[in-house]
Amino acid sequence: MQITKENLTIIIVTIKSQNVIDDCLTSIDPDIKKIIIENSSDKEFIKSLKEKYQNIECYLTGENLGMGSGNNFGIEKSSTRYVMILNPDTILKPDTLSQIFEKSKNLEFAILSPLSDDKNYPNYKTKKSTLTKNNDLFEVDQVDGYAMILDKEQFNNVFFDEKIFMYLENDDLCLRIKKSKKKIFIYAKSLISHLGGKTVDRKYFNEIEFSRNWHWNWSKFYFRKKHYGFFLAFVPGLLTFFKAVFKSLYFFIVNNKFKSKIHYCRASGFINAALNKKSWFRPRLD
Q: What residues of the chain score a pLDDT lower than 50?
């Protein structure tokens, strides 16, 4: 089997992403199907996308589902064998997908990803060198979730863990794939640009920072507990928790409310996960 324009759907989860989505969408071949999942009730945003772009389906969730659930929503709506999970703050090169199409011929994989064009921030991790004969396709342990093509037939209809709101949902997906003895590849001739942290408009900076700090600690605990057990999740996180409590109190005393809340969110994310509470924290993006 080979990936083609006809059997690929690109899924992009957005929320307040008007500042970056156009650069992303204009970099995609207009003949390729696209599904936009907007994690809000912003009808005007969806309307503007439908007016500007062809081969695009748009859905409003009505609430902030997070990245994993949003991607699952898009995957369920797709009808093609292959789906490409893409962040709105990415830009494809003119040959990003054509390179992937050519390389995918007779290649068995669960996940296949382009390579980040920024050598300082590789979009993969691997414990050992697994270069193939031509040294441009290599097997890795995990890839970043901002650009990844999934062969749906390799997943038994189980994709992202919807208990994770944000952070480590792609790590969890990759680890499950590796445990099932399926393959994850990076193709070095297919390049992609990732702006990083630009998905949501900068005017929501504070709220996004609070959310990131809360969810990073919640997700770390949940991920470690799920794959390695409670003890190996709790012990490493305990020191981080006490540091966060101390720093939150310190910055509260010196009247730095922003930093105080950042550290409060770190402590809260950890303790909620340790108490088996849901990943409930949501940024205010009104």
A: 131-133
